[in-house]
Design a protein that fits this description.
The strands form 6 sheets. A 7-stranded mixed beta sheet has the order 12-11-13-14-16-15-23, sandwiched between helices. Strands 4-5-3-6-7-8 form a 6-stranded mixed beta sheet, sandwiched between helices. Residues 1-24 have low confidence and may be disordered. The relative contact order is 0.09. Helices cover 36% and strands 19% of the residues. α8 (204-213) runs antiparallel to α9 (218-237), α10 (264-279) packs across α11 (294-300) and α18 crosses α21 (629-641). By secondary structure, it is α/β, with parallel strands linked by helices. The longest helix has 20 residues, at 218-237.
């Protein structure tokens, strides 16, 4: 669930009025400019739901925010084990921020496994809230604790808050007709209430959400709301929490407008719907469920009222085959997948190249190879997107840089596909897909005009004067062929994977024709109009850091740190990876050093070196997690000094 507000500053005033259950009493309230909170527990403890609710209330309050959900690939990993730990990190502030943060200021650990799995990221002096009820001898032995870390002094460097969350939750719900096990399930809501008190988060939205989520089970809804309120009241009354914190709305971070919290996959879904409306075409999604892309299928299936049709196919090949058929029939056609699915779809992507039909192939990248790390992030599909087909089969590539930017990237991918009659690869990743941030909802008149003109009749005159339809007669500006809807009288033409004759579209094995068609298809992609690359270089630096995709936030945060420390460094970020912006070569030539951070082993750097003969330096990470800003800042400082 997300929250929609008129504007951050306006909503902030409303939230402050409505959030308090009772006066703050005598407890101190401290003002902070930002905080990073991580909820961690067993994969059955509801940490993702807890984090999502805290995020929604933070968005409604008007803070800028960035999130990092992190969970196991297994549906239900063994309880109480390190592989079964699920976490949700939220960074929110009174100013614009770019990442979920490097290290949490507050860790909520629901069991020993959650503490052990996350303690290495927590800096000394940070607050740790632990559920003491779960620190049994057996639970601690599961994760290798010989003695209790709550008692052996190993946590002396932290501000430790031992709280019997389970016991307090069960006690709060003793008036309900629930078993102890059922009551214990609400302990995440108790923790959410406590953190909501600590950071003065609004509460009405969460209570409304719980009533809606459990509308068919009102007793369960009431129990969760009671646990949530009990957590709030515990924070208000206990002596262990003597201080609460305020983080003011980020009133200067956002232009005036209507905002909501949005994840990358949700933004992509809305962008696809907007593109279909702007093109006045039905939207068709042919897809097979795969992590982390499945949410797009789930979301689009809810919007039949916008002319959206979704088809959950029996496999990846059937999904893209159906989508390509829909493109032939005149729809804005989409298929969604992740890296393993792209491999299976490669032949049909090549067929779309040959047929020259618009098709959006959305790859939400994850750790590989093969099934790899389904719930972890990576940027390692760039070369697959670029070259992963037989023959010369060039495909444009677009990459969003933030969760909210996924909306605009979907519109841009649709523009290219519809204008140039080509499949387009959109490379998001798990970090963007599951992460979230505030998004200003655009006005309809801000959206691009994607209107398409279908072929209506003959377009070529033969030597004898007769008029015919040539399916491969090209627009002189875009080199796009006409889009002829099947069933239109007089526009019958052949389709298939065998090479086409220029103009007529007839089957042709002629060597000269094949050479011409291969070069023409490449020239069409090379000629796609994309904006010039913008460079952020206020001090004429000698070092340029170049990124693409989801590295934008960590790179920008690292660059800010370096500039604050007095270093001179330039930054540029690529949205279009094929074709590259026309000024990219000139930009690279202005700098003595070019550093390219990537969550792979240097795929963009390989392309840059090959095309521009630039000695680009790679900085790589493939651990399934996004870069940390401090880590990048250190690496870039070393590059500057080298």
């Amino acid at each position: 669930m997300t929250s929609q507000v008129s504007s951050p500053s306006e909503q902030a005033d409303e939230a402050v009025v409505g959030e308090q259950r009772k006066p703050a009493g005598t407890k101190d309230v401290r003002r902070l400019d930002r905080v990073i909170i991580r909820f961690a527990g067993d994969s059955g403890d509801g940490m993702q739901l807890t984090g999502d609710r805290f995020t929604s209330e933070t968005a409604s309050f008007g803070n800028d925010l960035s999130t990092l959900p992190n969970f196991p690939a297994e549906i239900r990993a063994p309880a109480g084990t390190l592989p079964g730990v699920s976490s949700f990190q939220l960074h929110f502030a009174d100013h614009d921020i770019l990442t979920p943060g490097d290290a949490p200021n507050v860790l909520v650990a629901m069991n020993p496994a959650a503490l052990k799995a996350n303690l290495g990221d927590v800096p000394r002096g940070a607050e740790i809230i632990v559920n003491t009820d779960e620190f049994t001898k057996r639970a601690m032995q599961k994760v290798g604790y010989a003695t209790s870390p709550l008692e052996d002094g190993s946590l002396d460097g932290y501000s430790l808050h031992p709280v019997p969350l389970t016991t307090l939750t069960v006690e709060a719900l003793k008036g309900f007709d629930l078993t102890r096990k059922e009551a214990e399930r609400s302990k995440n809501m108790f923790a959410l209430g406590l953190l909501s008190w600590m950071y003065h988060r609004p509460t009405e939205g969460t209570e409304k959400f719980l009533k809606s989520k459990f509308a068919k089970k009102p007793d369960i809804a009431a129990a969760n709301i009671t646990a949530f309120r009990a957590g709030w009241n515990f924070g208000e009354t206990t002596e262990d929490f003597a201080v609460s914190y305020e983080i003011a709305p980020a009133t200067t971070a956002f232009p005036v407008g209507t905002y909501r919290n949005i994840s990358g996959n949700l933004a992509l879904s809305y962008g696809l719907i907007a593109a279909s409306r702007q093109a006045d075409l039905p939207l068709y999604l042919g897809s097979y469920p795969i992590t982390p892309a499945s949410d797009i299928l789930h979301e689009l299936s809810r919007h039949k009222n916008f002319g959206v049709r979704t088809f959950q196919a029996e496999d990846e090949i059937a999904g893209i085959g159906a989508a390509l058929g829909a493109a032939f029939g005149g729809s804005l056609a989409v298929t969604t997948t992740s890296g393993p699915g792209v491999a299976l779809k490669s032949e049909t992507i090549g067929l779309a190249v040959s047929l020259e039909l618009p098709l959006l192939v959305i790859d939400i990248q994850r750790g590989g190879p093969s099934t790899g790390l389904p719930t972890k992030t990576e940027q390692a599909d760039l070369l697959q997107a670029m070259f992963g087909r037989n023959g010369e089969a060039p495909v444009p590539i677009v990459a969003p840089c933030t969760p909210a930017d996924c909306f605009d990237a979907a519109l841009e991918a649709a523009r290219i596909a519809l204008t140039y009659r080509t499949p387009v690869m959109l490379l998001s990743d798990g970090y963007l897909a599951n992460g979230s941030e505030p998004w200003r909802i655009p006005e309809p008149d801000e959206l691009p005009d994607l209107t398409v003109q279908f072929a209506q009749g003959p377009n070529h005159t033969l030597d004898d004067g007769s008029e015919v339809f040539w399916p491969y007669k090209r627009d002189p500006q875009t080199l796009a062929r006409p889009w002829a809807i099947p069933g239109t009288p007089g526009l019958e033409h052949r389709i298939g994977g065998i090479e086409k004759e220029d103009g007529t579209g007839n089957i042709s094995y002629a060597p000269a024709n094949h050479d011409f068609m291969v070069r023409t298809r490449q020239a069409k992609i090379d000629g796609i109009e994309v904006p010039d690359l913008e460079v952020d270089d206020p001090h004429e630096a000698k070092t340029l850091v170049l990124g693409w995709g989801s590295t934008y936030g960590p790179i920008t945060a690292a660059v800010r740190r370096l500039r604050t420390a007095g270093e001179s460094i330039a930054q540029a970020h690529l949205r279009h990876l094929n074709p590259f912006p026309r000024n990219l070569g000139a930009v690279l030539g202005r700098y003595e050093k070019v550093v390219i951070p990537e969550m792979n082993l240097g795929q963009l750097a390989t392309l840059i070196r090959a095309k521009y003969l630039v000695d680009a330096h790679s900085y790589n990470q493939v651990n399934g997690m996004p870069f940390k800003a401090e880590q990048l800042a250190k690496a870039l400082k070393e590059a500057i000094d080298a």
